[in-house]
Design brief:
Number of helices: 10
Number of domains: 2
CATH class of the largest domain: Mainly Beta
Shape: globular
Helix content: 25-40%
Radius of gyration: 22 Å
Strand content: 25-35%
Structural class: alpha+beta
Largest sheet: 16 strands, mixed
Mean pLDDT: 90
CATH architecture of the largest domain: Sandwich
Bound molecules: adenosine-5'-diphosphate, magnesium ion
Number of strands: 18
Order of helices and strands: HEEHEHEHHEHHEEEHHEEEEEEHEEEE
CATH topology of the largest domain: Tumour Suppressor Smad4
């Protein structure tokens, strides 16, 4: 279906009656059905990316569903919208219902991945965060992270799903229309690369992030709005309005390594403090307590309203935060808002972000930079930092992008 039109299910029933013998007639009908499916698959070969079927993997998908995600209706949404769509498209899948937090992470960490053509999650972004980190904790992480990943939105934070829909060139939709669109794209089975960002906190192992890193206003809204999850994706709008009323300043030090056009020039690996961990080594980061290399930019201000690093286009279903981001541009889109912005101006920014027009508002307090690595040192002893919408340990951190490390089913 062409872009600009929302995707809807239309049922067409064809009947074949060319032969007298019912068995022979059925054989003939099945031949036609196969021909139509093969024809549809051939058309997809003409486009960019790789088809799932080209990856010489088993075709069965593991579909991990978080029944608690969003308004708690993921299983109903699966039954009403997804099950039949996948079956009709010939996408064989095994349903796995998660029982608790980190269940999916443990499952994919131990799974025999040779059995699975793809790992698809039906939830919000949080469940994919678990799956990606589970894959990168494996001793065979290099192979494991090449497993195609898919997402069907049933959460309250469906930023990656909205990004995939956006990359397909379709006009914005939300909730169940977004789910149907992502189901359709999943059936097409086109696989693209996806950047991941490794994040070092002051203690604990590295995390891998596919979406966002936030501190200040955005992180506070994300976590405070958990209590409005019964309203679904609208929770962020409600949370933004509540937070605006108690707008505050966050103090800290921010620095980044600008992204140059020349990606072929990779800096020498193993300057990092990565020990014998799973996952790729970081090549741009020094230990957190060491001084930054001279090619980093240190932001002069120390008073912020927010810091937001994005590596996909959408921050939420209706927030197009990084309009020109693609899944594998190898870029961290860093935004920060300097202190001194009025409530009205900040609200205007978020309203403009619905259409990705916030940069065009020429707000003097908003800064955007394309970077490959960053370091943040918040000064206040307490606060909230989120990675892909999940709370992580608060404190100094640094991050580096790994271009195209994962595989994403984008349609
Ligand atoms: P939402 O967008 O609705 O918040 P997420 O996918 O982000 O949906 O999931 C929210 C949290 O729930 C994540 O931290 C995830 O790890 C966790 N989770 C996954 N499965 C379950 C489950 N069965 N019960 C409770 N929490 C779960
Ligand atoms: Mg990106």
């Amino acid at each position: 279906m062409s872009s600009g039109v929302s995707r809807q299910r239309a049922e067409q029933c064809f009947r074949l009656s060319s032969l007298q013998d019912p068995r022979a007639n059925l054989d003939e009908a099945e031949k036609w059905a196969r021909a139509v499916q093969e024809r549809a698959a051939r058309q997809q070969y003409l486009r960019d990316g790789m088809l799932m079927s080209e990856l010489s993997r088993p075709s069965r998908m593991m579909l991990l569903v978080n029944p608690q995600s969003g308004k708690g209706q993921a299983l109903t949404l699966y039954n009403n919208h997804i099950q039949r769509m996948l079956n009709e498209a010939g996408v064989t899948h095994t349903l796995v219902i998660t029982e608790r937090q980190n269940h999916a992470r443990e499952l994919v960490k131990e799974a025999d991945l040779s059995q699975w053509g793809a790992l698809v999650i039906m939830s919000g972004d949080g469940l994919l965060f678990e799956v990606i980190n589970g894959l990168l904790e494996r001793p065979d992480w290099e192979e494991a992270i090449r497993t195609p990943l898919g997402i069907l939105p049933s959460g309250s934070g469906n930023a990656l799903a909205a990004s995939i829909h956006h990359y397909s060139g379709s006009s914005p939709v939300s909730s169940e229309e977004l789910l149907v669109s992502c189901g359709f794209l999943l059936c097409q089975g086109l696989v693209a690369r996806m950047d991941l960002v490794s994040i070092h906190l002051s203690t604990g192992p590295r995390l891998f992030s596919f979406l966002s890193l936030a501190w200040g206003f955005v992180a506070d809204v994300d976590i405070e709005s958990e209590k409005y999850r019964h309203v679904g994706a609208a929770r962020f709008t409600v949370g933004t309005l509540v937070r605006l009323a108690s707008l505050r300043v966050y103090k800290g030090k921010l620095a980044y390594l600008p992204a140059t056009e020349d990606y072929s020039k990779e800096s020498t690996p193993s300057r990092s403090d990565t020990k014998a961990l799973a996952g790729p080594p970081d090549s741009l980061l020094l230990p957190l307590d060491q001084q930054l290399p001279s090619d980093w930019v240190v932001v002069q201000e120390e008073d912020f309203v927010l810091m937001l690093a994005m590596y996909q286009s959408h921050l939420a279903e209706d927030l197009l935060a990084a309009p020109d981001a693609t899944s594998d541009d190898g870029v961290i889109h860093l935004f920060y808002v300097r202190a001194g912005i009025s409530r009205a101006a900040l609200l205007k920014l978020f309203l403009a972000m619905e259409k990705g027009a916030h940069l065009a508002t020429n707000c003097q307090h908003l800064v955007h930079a394309k970077v490959r690595a960053l370091r943040l040192q918040p000064y206040s002893p307490k606060g909230i930092i989120t990675v892909d919408g999940e709370v992580v340990e608060y404190g100094p951190l640094q991050a580096e992008v790994h271009r195209g490390l994962a595989r994403l089913i984008t349609g």
